[in-house]
Write a structure and sequence with these properties.
Elements lengths: L2 E3 L6 E3 L15 H6 L21 E2 L2 E2 H6 L1 H18 L3 E3 L3 E3 L10 H19 L4 H18 L15 H19 L4 H19 L1 E3 L7 H4 L8 E3 H8 L7 H7 L1 H13 L11 H12 L1 H12 L7 E4 L2 E4 H27 L1 H17 L1
Antiparallel strand pairs: 1-2, 3-4, 5-6, 7-8, 9-10
Helix pairs in contact: 3-4, 3-5, 3-14, 4-5, 5-14, 5-15, 6-7, 6-11, 6-12, 7-11, 10-13, 11-12, 13-14
Length: 368
């Protein structure tokens, strides 16, 4: 039997071996063949699109699964189940009693309290009904966007922010769309423009005046306002409470996240990869996670704030409460908002890839 030595580890292998039995070197690889002294000048490497080696899953979803609709159907079904579970969690009334959502219609707008149930129905329709992938996606996105917009109206039931800051939220959502598209398509010019547009909208939202800016932060941060503000920008309100206490440090950092995250994402995403490997992709994926999950991440940090010391009493809306009662009621409410926020955020973001690919394909067909 004839033998051939491996050029990498010098292990002798049978002449008909495809790989080295010791180090696993591939004898058909052009680099290994060149090390063995063989002529590789006539071997043409396959063309690989720049940045294509970074393509894969984002938040557990593949682009192909989103385009085909299989991932959208699964997202709709699982999200509907979580919405039903969250809807059945009692809500707090004045931090004193817990009732089911339909019994709290005097404490918060009915649309905010009841929309999770309606959204769950929309999710089941998107998962079960014989719809096309883009129709499922449009249904989920509508439910997700409306759902996120209703969450601030539930803030009073959990001591969470009660002010809807539409430009900050909308800019972060749009930036998340762009980041998702950029992660799936490293060469997309549209993705880069969308990220920049989202950053501009979010930053503008930080500096526009709002009424009752104290209500733009969770209950435990409002105590750091030495005097009441009738009107101020979100930036001013956030700066007032920033890093006032180590126990709330991460929550105050979170408040400023869009103004840092989106410009950073725009900067990292702007250069187009020239080789097969998208080096920026490994940094952009975590930024995409943060942008997409911006809303539930905030509720998670606000819930974390409530863990720890629960002694003492506090005055809320001219009523004295036990801080232990406040934190126990608020914690349950914030856990409920985490579930709602996570479902609505994923519904408002992931299906955008399905819609973009559908309308791009439709435009190509029309041009032909």
């Amino acid at each position: 039997m004839s033998w051939k030595p491996c050029p990498v580890c010098s292990q002798n292998n049978p002449s008909n071996s495809m790989r080295c039995s010791s180090c696993g070197a591939d004898f058909s690889d052009p680099d290994v063949m060149a090390m063995m002294g063989e002529d590789v000048s006539n071997i043409v490497a396959p063309e690989v699109a720049a940045g294509s080696l970074a393509h894969g899953k984002v938040l557990g979803f593949s682009e192909q699964g989103l385009i085909s609709g299989s991932s959208v159907r699964r997202l709709a079904l699982v999200g509907a189940i979580f919405l039903v579970a969250a809807f059945l969690v009692p809500v707090s009334i004045d931090f004193e009693e817990r009732v089911l959502a339909w019994n709290a219609l005097d404490s918060a707008p009915a649309i905010a309290l009841l929309f999770p149930a309606l959204a769950a129905i929309m999710g089941l329709v998107a998962a079960i009904a014989p719809l096309q992938a883009w129709q499922r996606s449009a249904t989920l996105m509508a439910a997700g966007v409306i759902g996120i917009a209703t969450l601030p109206f539930l803030g009073g039931l959990s001591g969470s922010p009660e002010k809807l800051l539409p430009l900050i939220w909308l800019g972060t959502l749009i930036g998340g769309w762009g980041l998702l598209l950029r992660c799936y398509d490293a060469q997309s010019d549209l993705a880069r423009k969308v990220i920049i547009g989202g950053a501009v909208i979010a930053i503008a939202g930080f500096f526009l005046p709002i009424s009752d800016p104290q209500k733009a932060v969770p209950l435990e941060l409002r105590f750091y306002f030495r005097e009441s503000m009738d009107s101020a920008s979100a930036f001013t309100a956030y700066k007032t409470v920033f890093n006032r206490d180590p126990t709330v440090y991460f929550s105050t950092v979170y408040l400023f996240m869009p103004v840092v995250l989106l410009p950073l994402a725009a900067t990292l995403s702007w250069p187009k990869p020239t080789g097969a490997w998208d080096k920026s992709g490994m940094f952009l994926r975590p930024l995409a996670w943060l942008a997409v999950l911006y809303v539930p991440l905030g509720f998670a940090l606000f819930a974390f704030n409530l863990l720890g010391e629960n002694d003492g009493r506090v005055v809320i809306e001219r009523t004295v409460h036990s801080w232990n009662d406040v934190t126990s009621h608020a914690l349950l409410g914030r856990l409920r908002l985490i579930a709602l926020g996570a479902v609505f955020a994923l519904w408002a973001s992931m299906p955008v890839i399905t819609l973009l690919r559908h309308f791009a394909a439709k435009a190509d067909t029309s041009s032909d």
